[in-house]
Amino acid sequence: MQTIRRVAELKEAVSRFRAEGSRVALVPTMGALHAGHMALIDAARRPGTRVVASIFVNPRQFGPNEDLSRYPRREMADARMLAEGGCDLLWAPDVEEMYPAGFATSISVAGVSEGFDGAARPGHFDGVATVVTKLFNQVRPDAAYFGEKDFQQLAVIRRMVADLDMGIEIVGVPTQREDDGLALSSRNIYLDEGDRARAVALPRALGIAARAIGRGEDPVTVLDEARGTLAAAGFDVDYVSLADAETLGEDPDPSRPRRLLAAARIGNTRLIDNLAIEVPAAPE
């Protein structure tokens, strides 16, 4: 696996992939890789496809009081994982290469970016949309792979790609979980032993709520119960909400795909998770 740190060299390498007749798939990451990221690599590996992974801790998607300075960085270990997983090229620019002097552009996606984490983390999704647009322009992939764990991020990127006619296939890969159900996340390393034991209450509460809503129970009551369960487990709850799976509008039509979204803090660690709500079968 080749590691590249300069845009000009990246474009040359991708041009060689194209010249050999290969499709190009991109897996954007911020590093600190785990099995969830490797599921993206595995999904991207198809016959006739070259896989490019990026590692870039994007300062533009961190707020002033967030964990940019302590976000885990372990490029050597990540590179070994990528190589063993069949990745063809690692794109690992520094901040100066991604945002050179004078950089002044920001991409904003209205609607899907404004609630949930967009409200809790102002400017976060502008930073995501901007860096992903840059990555797409640098790599020019045929397809890009993102985890469904960051479901709002996935919705923002899908909306952006559609609105700007980028012509890139955006593939959502199901959330990878620990044996007890906790969604895999690079931030899970922040959890101490006690918080890790309590953290499992998040996927369990969401699972109970998703099944109840799928059975037709009142969403307002179900969501209130889920918030209470999480608070009793020691979480400081940001939101537990039901949304349309495409628009992320709240109070969604039950005949359309819906998503249960949650964010909550346990100790010093903020966790997010989501689950699909099954669409009721049409009566025969």
From TrEMBL:
Similarity section: Belongs to the pantothenate synthetase family.
Binding sites annotated in the UniProt record for ATP: 30-37, 147-150, 184-187
Other comments on record: The reaction proceeds by a bi uni uni bi ping pong mechanism.
Residues that coordinate or bind (R)-pantoate: Q61, Q153
Name the UniProt record assigns to this protein: Pantothenate synthetase
Location of the protein in the cell: Cytoplasm
Catalysed conversion reaction: (R)-pantoate + beta-alanine + ATP = (R)-pantothenate + AMP + diphosphate + H(+)
Keyword Mitochondrion: no
Gene3D superfamilies, alphabetized: HUPs, Pantoate-beta-alanine ligase, C-terminal domain
Organism: Sphingomonas gellani
GO BP term (any one): pantothenate biosynthetic process
Pathway entry: Cofactor biosynthesis; (R)-pantothenate biosynthesis; (R)-pantothenate from (R)-pantoate and beta-alanine: step 1/1
Active site, renumbered: H37
This protein's UniProt keywords: ATP-binding, Cytoplasm, Ligase, Nucleotide-binding, Pantothenate biosynthesis
Top-level lineage group: Bacteria
GO MF entries: ATP binding; pantoate-beta-alanine ligase activity
GO cellular component, one term: cytosol
